[in-house]
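Dear support,

I submitted the protein below through the web form. The confirmation email said the job was done, but the results page showed an empty box. After a refresh the structure appeared. I'm attaching both so you can tell me whether what I see now is the final result or a partial one.
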Amino acid sequence: MRCHACRSEVPLASGESVGFRETCARCAADLHVCLNCAHHDPNAYNECRESNAERVLDRDRANRCDYFRPGSGGATASEERARTLSSLDSLFKKG
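What the results page shows now:
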């Protein structure tokens, strides 16, 4: 798994879970966050592909979601913004 904040690799054994209070050894960012979850999808309803998960407003802060599964750490907020703007530009491009 990658830390969503600093993008450093966080080693996890196969099947190992991430505790609610665990933090990144490199930058001290919370690890049990939506941005590190395999279910996180900025294009999905509530930005989560798990339909039973409760809505979480602060996706970069620790939460107690029972559906959390370590993911790739996703894109940083600036990467997501750039990708979204690029998609919008292509929609309205004249040509």
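Response: this is the final, complete result; the empty box was a page-load delay. Residues 77-92 form the longest helix (16 residues).
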